[in-house]
Amino acid sequence: MPSMKLWQKLLITLVAMLIASYAAGRLWLLAFDFLIPSYLAGVSGGLAAIPVWELLRWIGKKT
């Protein structure tokens, strides 16, 4: 099986970032009853992207 192309890795990482930002926003709203500041949503998405990207790199090396 050929390794994933760069655009596929970027797409998966972007989707993970969006899901993490949305989940952080929902959890924040439930906990504090006001919207999450945008920079915190961005930080949560960025932090989620790091392990996803590393996982994709690890999977690519195994194949």
List keywords for this structure.
63 residues; mainly alpha; 2 helices; 83% helix; elongated
Instruction: From the alpha carbons, calculate the radius of gyration and give it in angstroms.
Output: 14 Å
Number of domains: 1
- How does the helix and strand content classify structurally? mainly alpha
Count of DSSP E strands? 0
Helix content: over 70%
Portion of residues in beta strands equals under 5%
Low-confidence stretches: none
Give me the number of helical elements.
2
First and last CA, distance: 7 Å
The best one-word shape is elongated
Largest sheet: none
Element-level helix/strand string = HH
**What is the average of the pLDDT values?**
92
Write the layout of secondary structure elements.
Layout: H1 6-32, H2 38-62
Written account of the structure:
The protein has 63 residues and is mainly α. The chain has one domain (7-62). Helix content is 83%, strand content 0%. The chain contains two helices and no strands. It has helices spanning 6-32, 38-62. Helix 1 packs antiparallel against helix 2 (38-62). The longest helix is centred in the N-terminal third of the chain and has 27 residues, at 6-32. The radius of gyration is 14 Å and the shape is elongated. The termini are close together. The mean pLDDT is 92.
